[in-house]
Amino acid sequence: MTFYPLTTFARHGLRIALPGMLAAATLHPAGGMAQTQSINPVPPNATELDLSASGTVQAQPDELTATFMAEARADTAASAQAQVNALVGKVTAASAHASGLTLNAESYFVHHDDGDPRQNRRPQWVARQSIRLTATDGKVLLPLVGQLQADNLALTRLDWSLSREKRAELTRRAETLALQDMQQRAQAAASTLKLTVASIRTVTLEDQNMPRPMPMMMMARAASVDMPGAEAPTGMQDVTATVRATLILKPAG
Keywords for this entry (predicted)? Predict the structure, then answer.
């Protein structure tokens, strides 16, 4: 059987209509469909087959992300904001000397804390800024993590994950495996039923949810504390793609 060239994209819910190709486990007599479908009518003696298949590839995460929270409290909003800006400035200055680092300043907000006399906490303004640092080499980022903690920035998250580029590459490979599995299942189903594949009506490619990041043990102490074994990820992550297709089977011969 001949399969026509297929271009896939690493995105959720890609739908491709393919005439003359292959693809569950559900069979539908297709004779009655010719009355309701004016496009590509199904022959009266044909059978419709719905098929799903999947493909999975594994890879080590290639991106380490550290998320910090800069927080300051003061009697005025302006003073709290100035202190937070100074902390963020330390992150910017420190990361400027490290190669291969990406810095993103994220959520920022200021609010008034009314305090609690019962806890001897007086009213204050609170300012917070979230900062995310990303690198492909743990040896570059981890020393900076300790330095920033010593500068009174709170480390809220530290984990390995797949970069966008790596995930796109793995998704394409998983889609290829899923399509190959679909073709094999389609041929096996047709052979068992003493039929042949006449055409594929539709093919839908879907990639599953983003793999979960791999959290590292949080370091609550100062910069002098070592983080053994943290320079590289220790596990693998799966990227899975699923293909769903509807194809038409016809009697053999």
Answer: Signal
